[in-house]
Known about the structure:
The chain is α/β, with parallel strands linked by helices. Helices cover 21% and strands 23% of the residues.
Amino acid sequence: MKLICDLVVNNLQYAGLSVPKNRAKKCQVSVIKSSNNELTMVAQSADNKNGINYKLTGNVTQTFEKFVLEGKCTIRLKKPLADLILSKCDVMQLRLFLKTIQTGEDLLSGSNSQAANKKGNNEDSRKRLIDSLPSSQKKLKLSNFNEKCRTKLIILSKKELITTSFSQTLVELQIPDLGLSMIPPSVSRLAKLQTLDVSGNNLTDLPRTFSSKLTSLNLKGNQLDRSNSKTWRFFSLPNIRNSLSLLNLQENRLPALPLEILSLEKLSTLNVSHNKIKKFASSIGDLPRLRDLDVSHNVLSSLDISFKMLKLASLDVTGNSFSHPVDKQGVNGTSSVPSLKRIACALVRNHRINHNILPKTVQEELLLMRRCKCFKVVGSTDEQYIINSVKNLAQTCVFDGTTHLRMHYSSCNGCEKSQISSLRRLI
Length: 427
Ligand SMILES: [Zn+2]
């Protein structure tokens, strides 16, 4: 293997004099070992096919490696008194090259070694070198070596993102805190990906297509409040809707929970804490598998009655403003008459008629329909409240302040009539 780079030979004998600097030449650099184990660097260029030899053993006074990750280094020689400035190198190749100079082991010839046993030794040397690298680089280097079969990958810098090719075998991928505005298209094409962590970026949009059946998605700390209506169609993609079980939407300044999320059939863990959500749609009660829900640190003043339909193992409601538990009983005979459309929508929901064939706008309206405290979907928009103990909503509850909170609902005809008659009896 050869190192392809740009090379400038800076002659230090003329240091301080106004000698024009040599221009960078595209070179192929190799290190050869003589019979007496002495290393020589050969720099071949287009205009010098035979190459210029630079003796390395006992001749290198210093190597400057501060910018190795940018593909640059400088080798200072005694004879001739010069700096060899290498740039535009492949980072991994450059590290192997420098290690070769320092240890005398011919790591660079690993791929075209003639002797099989020598190749084996070189592989060992490579592994030793990888082990000696800092962890972030190790992940990158290891991923290069195991590119064809790796299943897990963590990208820690933009440079790694550019230089790393994603293997189709990837099952878990983490690309956190890189300031990305979109999920790279190559990620959308990974067919086996199950876990994706893109937290702490600047995402304002989500892919329109996605190849894999994703089970876990971490979108914490992005800017999805700046998304458009098409963004959330991601969650309506059949493979996402039928597979996603864990979703983290923490810290996105969301004003409401997007309705598409309420159609995720396998969703079991949902974190929407630290957003600006005022209300949940009643269809949250239709998430059959939801077990762990975190709605803490939003601006909720009441919960939808349909929270009582969920079978939650854990619920966190801290940091909201349930502090005014006023029981507004709206039985005053002035309730507005629902439109025919809303009555029809209520019928569709209550009879579980397949609404996927209906226009998108009607489907949205269906999901926003109110429920009565008997859980029947109603056409009415009149809001009433009951007070409910937080502890009744999940096996484990995290809350602050009052142990009771407001839940809103809209009465169905039956419940309203029985409420009026019970009031009359009281009178
Ligand atoms: Zn009712």
